[in-house]
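Sequence only, no structure available. Ideas?
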Amino acid sequence: MRWQGRRQSSNIEDRRGVSPKTAIGGVGGIVIVLVVLLLGGDPSSLLENISLDNQQTTTEYTPTPEEKEMADFVSVVLAETEDVWHEIFREEGSDYREPRLVLFNGSVKSACGIAGTATGPFYCSGDERLYIDLSFFDELKTRFRAPGDFAMAYVVAHEVGHHIQELTGVMDKMNELRSRLSEKEYNKYSVRLELQADFYAGVWAHFTQQKDLLESGDLEEALNAATAVGDDRIQKEMQGYIVPDSFTHGTSEQRKRWFYKGYTTGDINQGNTFNAENL
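Reply:
I predicted one. Tokens follow.
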């Protein structure tokens, strides 16, 4: 992606070096555990550290040159999502409210609870923030075999996709469903939620390509990343078999296909995964 020298977002909160003493707590923490599966994190590592102490500790944090470049890249990607979604919302006759992106390392406190690095990147609708530990991108490259800067951009754009769902009321409807459906039934809606976020990430990539910011191989990097984090692929690698009823984010094929649909159409009106007969 051609990102060097482009505008960086002003909506970055750098909390690296600031850690809550707890790893998870309360009902909000359970929500964080549920989003662990987005990119293959292990929820058990969070549950082992339950505590009621909400104090924070602060240590001096000096990023490496590689980390600084990665943080700059993420900031540029967030800025590009701001530009695209402002324009789309304007065309739809409404205003886009920008989310903030929190950089953390180790663990972080959000309005949805306290999460550790194992959670992976996540979005919290309670405070309209994206949370990312940059070390995840090394895991994306090594564990998930999805290298490349546009693979990282896909991750950011997917989380921004959840913010779009918050602004359009989808998240509120999902919260209502959570309170009255069984886990098995709710999972079916969760898959549709995540595939729509993938679609929105593709829409963003569509307009990024129109600005001639994509380089050769970028699209393939994003599609590879979407494929790498499919429920079926993750379950197969982690436990040797798949359990479709436990899927929460969609198969590799579904995630890849919905991202690509967003990329090829650039039309947010074609991303209603909740009414789609064929996911």
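Residues 12-270 form one domain.
Hope that gets you unstuck.
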